[in-house]
Amino acid sequence: MKIYLDNAATTKCDKSVFKAMAPYFCEKFGNSNSLHGFGREASNAVIKARKQVADFLNCDCKEVFFTSGATESNNWALNGVAQTLKNRGNHIITTEIEHPCILATTEYLSKNGFKITYIKPRKNGIVKISDIEKAITEKTILCSVMFANNEIGTIQPISGIGRMIKKIRKKNKRIFPFFHTDAAQAVNYLDCDVEKLNVDMVSLSGHKIYGPKGIGALYVRKGTPIAPFMRGGHQEKGLRAGTLNVSGIVGLGKAIELVEKYQRKNSGIEQLRDYLIDNILKKIPGAKLNGDRKNRLQNNVNFSFEKAEGESVLISLEAKGIAVSTGSACASMNLSPSHVLLAIGLPHILSHSSIRFSLGRNTTKSEIDYLLKVLPPIVKKIRKIAEGIKIE
Ligand SMILES: *Cc1c(COP(=O)(O)O)cnc(C)c1O
Fold it and tell me: Which numbered atom of ligand 1 lies nearest the CA of 206?
């Protein structure tokens, strides 16, 4: 038996996405920049995919730029705006719970003349709009807040933050601060209409939405000053040079079209999430849910099991055929505790004993029942062993 509960790390490529991509490797292999029939075939496919993404975001096709994924989109959004506006302001606001690719970029910018304010979320894993408002100064050129957190699934008040920023711009008669959101985790479950969200830039990723890896997009609102990410070609209005990943782009377009269909019907994933949370709380003493109970992604369950080290629980679940994660995939490569869990005030010891279960489109009730059968004895056993070690 193999049960995949790590859909926040990546998702299985949908068969119909794969099918849509397949012709663009060996048959329709043209370069979308070429003027002949082969090229037109490819560029028409790119035009269609761009429209699919634009429809989902409710924006103009001209505002959609294809990238290699959310990491690139995030790097580009921050560096691109910082470069063009560095003479007008050197202050950037973000949060303590962003994905490492945002935090590494702000870290880099902080070594290159920028001042960064990291907003701390409240204990429930959600940032307060007023905390961001208070941090804004005349020098603030950019604010970047993720839509939904990848570790604990908490949903940030993006629309409200955007509205507040718009008001400040209007009051100060300025075009900045600009507002960016990393929506990689949100796309599957939340409305990403850029008008409703009041955002200037949005990052998204193909492989988090049942599409292929190595493709993503950055939405850039018309009028947002952004420097090129890669130079040396006319692709993507000269801002992101390089031959387009046509098959990946086709896959992303198809995947995002499917998301819209899934969002419209109630998939039951939220009920499954609540069933898992309720039963873990019932069956495992001392289990602590991380992140807000209600205001979280429909597929995210993150628990700390005190006195049961996360890695040990993960390995024991793996032996039972269940794939989960401790913190984020990137964070789990090193042994430092999750920055997200520390930011919401968890002590080190509890941050080391956290497990993320991220459900997906294909998760069934019987899989969750199996997890609920094997998990309590695993936690109990690991706690007993830890107890024994301490006595000696
Ligand atoms: C996965 C993820 C990323 C990185 O996306 P890639 O396409 O793998 O580069 C960035 N931000 C968040 C919130 C993510 O979940």
Answer: 7
Residue 286 gets the label, from left (phi > 0), alpha (psi -120 to 50) or beta, of: left
Please give the structure tokens belonging to residue 277.
């949370």
Distance, in Å, from the CA atom of 270 to the CA atom of 260, rounded to the nearest integer, reads 17
**Where does ligand 1 bind, in terms of residues with CB under 6 Å?**
69-71, 99, 101, 146, 150, 182, 184-185, 205, 207-208, 216
Q: 308-358: per-residue pLDDT in tens?
A: 999 999 999 999 999 999 964 445 556 688 999 999 999 988 999 999 999
- pTM of the predicted model, to two decimals? 0.96
Segment holding 322, helix H or strand E = strand 322-323
- Using one digit for the tens of pLDDT, what is the confidence trace for 170-216? 999 999 999 999 999 999 999 999 999 999 999 999 999 999 999 99
Per-position b or e across 81-102, b if 16+ CB within 10 A of its CB: bbeebeeebbbbbbbebbbebb
| CA 303 to chain CA mean position, Å | 19
Secondary structure (3-state) at 257: helix
147 CA to centre of ligand 1 in angstroms? 12
Nearest to 8 by CA among 245, 296, 380, 377: 296
Cα gap 48→65, rounded to integer Å: 13
Q: Which atom of ligand 1 is nearest to the CA of 214?
A: 7
